[in-house]
Amino acid sequence: MTSHSQSTPSQPAYRGQKLRAFAFALLAKREYSKTELYQKLMLYAADADEVKLLLEELSQANYQSDTRMAGMLVRQEIRQGRGPRRIQQRLQKHQIDHDLAQPDLAEIDWFEQALQLKIKKFGENIAQDQKQLAKQIRFLQYRGYAIDIIMKVVKYKEND
Q1: Is residue 144 within 8 Å of 85, Cβ to Cβ?
Q2: If we measure between CA atoms, which residue out of 39, 46, 37, 52 comes closest to residue 14?
Q3: What sequence ranges are listed for the domain RecX third three-helical (predicted)?
Q4: Who wins on pLDDT, 141 or 46?
Q5: Could you please report the per-residue DSSP string of 33-68?
Q6: What is the Cα–Cα distance from 47 to 45, expressed in whole angstroms?
Q7: Helix 130-142 and helix 110-122: axis angle, to 10°?
């Protein structure tokens, strides 16, 4: 009597066209960094060298682009009110070189982003007591803004 778990493989081993079709299916759903796509494909691939060649081909044909992925992440994080430090963490999580996001990051007025976030959450008035001020500072720090920008934002008056 043989065990059923020994006779069937735990996962399929893709090669050739099947691996290529799987890669295209993944990329059709969302952007992946090269490292993420490699890790995902290796879960199903039979050969690591074949995956590396496929990734190079996809990258050369611009189906996969770390630069495009970096830009998408930056825009997504900004829409969610996150600052440069949180964006940097997200880039590291996806194993994308920070330099690829530099052009997108350089265009952003971080003071204006932080100010709009502060106004949306706490209103336009300057905090009068230390407890409220500390709460605003913690909120903006958690969102990834630098302390010099935070201090300007929490003390900002419209007519300054």
Answers
A1: yes
A2: 46
A3: 107-154
A4: 141
A5: -HHHHHHHHHTTBS-HHHHHHHHHHHHHTTSS-HHH
A6: 6
A7: 130
Query: What DSSP state is assigned to residue 10?
Result: S
User: Which range has the worst mean pLDDT, 12-21, 48-57, 77-86, 144-153?
Assistant: 12-21
Residue 10 confidence (pLDDT): 57
Asked if residue 109 lies in contact with residue 91, where contact means CB atoms within 8 angstroms, the answer is no
- What domains does the chain contain, in order, with CATH numbers? 12-60 (1.10.10), 66-106 (1.10.10), 110-154 (1.10.10)
Q: What mean pLDDT, rounded, does the chain reach?
A: 87
Give the span between the Cα atoms of 36 and 128, in whole angstroms. 47
Angstrom distance (rounded) from CA 53 to CA 50 = 5
pLDDT for the residue 79: 92
Cα(69)–Cα(126) distance, integer angstroms: 38
DSSP 119-137: HHHH-SSPP-SHHHHHHHH
pTM of the model: 0.76
